[in-house]
Write a structure and sequence with these properties.
about 290 residues, alpha/beta, eight-stranded parallel β-sheet, about 40% helix, globular
Length: about 290
């Protein structure tokens, strides 16, 4: 397994791509984590009513084999009965960053088992603890991403890394994100671009990141930024002009996208996903 700097002219194969006639409107369920905690079934039914078709989920318990306190096989039946799919999950891989490798490998195996039952395409690494956000930490992270990517790929699934804003901070003369891109194998580690965080924290725009490594950004997170506080907000209420900043989906290698709002709800989380869905369907869906 070899990782290295890849030129902007390089294109990557996508062994996990699906022949989709259109993109399903996706939701990262973390947006309504309060509602999911109180009433998972009712919340999922509401998500479907609003027009969402696909989910990115979170909160897998590997030891108990549960999502939201529901056994994986049962959760799969719940989704099927409602008419929802899940194509990716944010799994707690970061919690094993500084633990013995054997524990991480075991958890990855559990994630693979859960993801396969749910018919997911991707297992996604979602976070890095602040104490590891330095050059050494990003290099250690890259090594772990390669190893996990190999393990997941060998199991027939895809693996991706999700960015926030901290990756765009400089460590010496290099951003953490540049370390990840340079030191991970693009065939084993795909990228999930959080468009909000790129616009919030990066001097390089989304389409320019895509141009550096076309075909690697297989998933997007779409959310808006408050015009004053720069916090999250409902789509259409903020400062991000998605009409102009969305990368070309084909160049990106896009397979799935998810609307998301991590907090700062105008009323509550359910009303926020209602408003964002309505805005997206009216103003942005034609771009995908």
């Amino acid at each position: 397994m070899t990782a290295g700097i890849v030129s902007s002219t390089t294109s990557f194969s996508m062994p996990f791509s699906k022949a989709l006639s259109k993109y399903k409107m996706g939701l990262q369920l973390f947006t309504i984590r309060d509602a999911m905690e109180k009433d998972p079934l009712g919340s999922l039914k509401k998500v479907k009513e609003l027009g969402y078709e696909d989910l990115e989920i979170y909160g897998y318990n590997g030891e108990e084999d549960t999502y939201y306190g529901i056994k994986t096989s049962e959760f799969k039946n719940v989704l099927s009965d409602i008419g929802l799919t899940t194509s990716s999950g944010h799994y707690g891989l970061h919690e094993f960053f500084d633990k013995p490798e054997s524990q991480l490998i075991r958890y990855v195996d559990q994630c693979i088992e859960g993801a396969k039952i749910l018919d997911q395409d991707y297992i996604t690494w979602p976070w890095l603890d602040p104490k590891f956000r330095n050059s050494e930490g990003f290099k250690k992270l890259s090594n772990k991403l390669n190893k996990i990517g190999e393990q997941v790929t060998n199991a027939g699934l895809g693996f991706a890394y999700h960015n926030h804003g901290f990756e765009f901070e400089l460590h010496g003369d290099q951003m953490g994100y540049e370390i990840i891109l340079a030191e991970t194998d693009p065939e084993l580690v795909k990228l999930q671009m959080d468009l909000y965080w790129v616009m919030h924290s990066s001097q390089i725009k989304p389409a320019d990141w895509v141009a550096k490594q076309p075909g690697r950004y297989v998933m997007w997170h779409i959310k808006d930024m408050d015009k004053i506080t720069r916090d999250y907000t409902e789509l259409g209420n903020g400062s991000i002009d998605y009409h102009t900043i969305l990368p070309n989906p084909k160049d990106s290698g896009l397979q799935y996208y998810y609307l998301e709002q991590g907090g700062n709800f105008a009323i509550n989380s359910i009303q926020s996903i209602t408003d964002s869905a309505a805005y997206f369907k009216k103003h942005l869906q034609q771009y995908l």
